[in-house]
Amino acid sequence: MTAPMIELRQISKRFVWRLDLASRLANLLGAGIRERAVHAVNHVDLGIAEGEVVGLVGESGCGKSTLGRIVAGIMDASEGEIRFRGKALSAMTEEERRDYKLAVQMIFQDPYASLNPRMRVEDIIGEAPVAHGLIRRSEMGEYVEKLMQQVGLDPRYRRRYPHQFSGGQRQRIGVARALAVQPRFIVCDEAVAALDVSIQAQVLNLFMDLREQLGLTYLFISHNLAVVEHISDRVVIMYLGRVVESAPTEELFAAPNHPYTKALLAEAPKLVAERRDYTPIKGEIPSPLDPPTGCHFHPRCPFAMARCKTEAPPLREIAPGRMSACHLNEMATV
Ligand code: SF4
C-alpha cells in the first residue's frame, strides 16, 4: 500500500473557555469556578490517499469542521502530528510549510461570507497566485479567464463583484479562487449545504470533474449522507470529537457497523427504502463541554451495556479497510 498523501496521527484539539472577570472575582470569594475545556477533536487517526475522496460525516458540533481547518493549516492542533507526503509538518522548513498551505485549500459553506464583497472577481481569484509568484501580474487577466471557464463561469463577468452573482455562481468563484494556487488537496466544509438542491448537484459534479481533470484529492465534510454517498470513495463518521467508523462508501451504506452510523442512516430521508430498518437516533447530541463517559454515544445507543458507560471503545479494524469503535464487535454477534 502506498503512503497516504495526508496522514493525521492522534490529532486532538482543545478549546479552553477562560474565566471572565466576574468568575475570577467570584473565585476570590471562594466560588471555585474552574476553566472549562472542550475536546473538539479527540485523538483522530486518518490517512487520505492521493486521488481519494473521503467524506467526513457527523452531526453539528462533532468536530468535523475543526478537523478540516486543522488539515487545511488554518488552525493548529493541540496534540498529534500531520504528515504530508510522508513529512511531518512540524519538521518542515518555512518554505515547505508555505507550499503545504498552497497545496491544501479549503472551500467553505457560505460562499458569500468567504468572498470580499469589495473586491472584483478577477482580484478575488487572481490576487493569491500573483502574491505567491505562481504567475506574473501581466498574466493575471488570462489566468483568471481560464479558471472562470474551468469552473463554469462566464469570463466576461470577471470585473463584477460577488453580490452580482447567484449563490451557485459565488461558490464557483470560491472554487476558482482555491484552484488559482494550484492545490493538490481540497477540504470542502459543507461546500454545497447553503445551495438549492438543483444547484448542489451541479456543484458536486463540478468537484468530480475537477478531480478527473486535475487529479485532486478531497476531504469532503458534510452532515448530509446522500451528498457524501454520491461523492466519496470512503466515509469517516465522527461523534463528539472521535472517529467511530470508517469504511469504503458502498460497504458503509450497504452494511453499517457502528450503532451511530446505523442511526444516521435511519434518519437520512433521501436514502433508498431498504435502509429503513435501522432505529432512528434518540435524543440530542450531548454538549461537548460535558461529554458522556466511556463511549460518548452510550446515552443514545439502543445496544448500550454497562461497560459502555465507563470504557471508551478503541477504533479497531473489523474487516480489511473497515474500522469501527464499538464494544459489540468484541462479542460473537453484531
Ligand atoms: Fe453502543 Fe456500547 Fe457500541 Fe457505544 S460501545 S456504540 S454504547 S454498544
Task: Give a written overview of the molecule.
By secondary structure, this protein is of the alpha/beta class. It has a domain at 6-118 and 161-255: P-loop containing nucleotide triphosphate hydrolases (Rossmann fold, 3-Layer(aba) Sandwich). It has ten helices and twelve strands. The protein has helices at 21-28, 64-71, 94-103, 121-131, 140-150, 167-179, 197-214, 225-231, 249-254, 259-267, and strands at residues 6-17, 36-48, 53-57, 79-84, 87-88, 104-107, 185-189, 217-222, 234-239, 242-248, 316-319, 322-324. The strands form two sheets. Strands 6-7-8-3-9-10-12-11 form an eight-stranded mixed β-sheet, sandwiched between helices. The protein has a four-stranded antiparallel β-sheet with strand order 2-1-4-5, covered by helices on one side. Helix 4 (121-131) packs across helix 5. The longest helix is centred in the middle third of the chain and has 18 residues, at 197-214. The mean pLDDT is 90. Bound molecules: iron/sulfur cluster. Iron/sulfur cluster (SF4) binds at residues 259, 295, 297-298, 301, 303-305, 308, 313, 326-328. Iron/sulfur cluster binds next to loops.
